[in-house]
Task: structure prediction
Amino acid sequence: MSALVVLLGAVALIGVVLSWAGRFGGGSRGTGTSLRRGPSSHTTSRGRAKVGYAKRADADQQARRLMERDGVAMNVYRCSTCDKWHVGHGR
Result:
């Protein structure tokens, strides 16, 4: 009887994890925060929306401001999802 309870608990836990992954990081998820963060994610590591710049020059200017303010290297990249320019931490 206890083995059946453990088995049902394990199945329920797997169901919850799969449901959660489908909502917050599964393959059906569109742009935005995901479990696998990457360049196409449209939120920062703190959950805020990334700023998209139409012109590279505007993104370069913001990257320079942030480097001067924080003393951290920043890079500019074109997003393959929204086709705008984003500023990110240098690598």
In short: Residues 50-91 form one domain. Residues 25-35 have pLDDT under 50 and may be disordered. The beta strands are 74-78, 85-89.
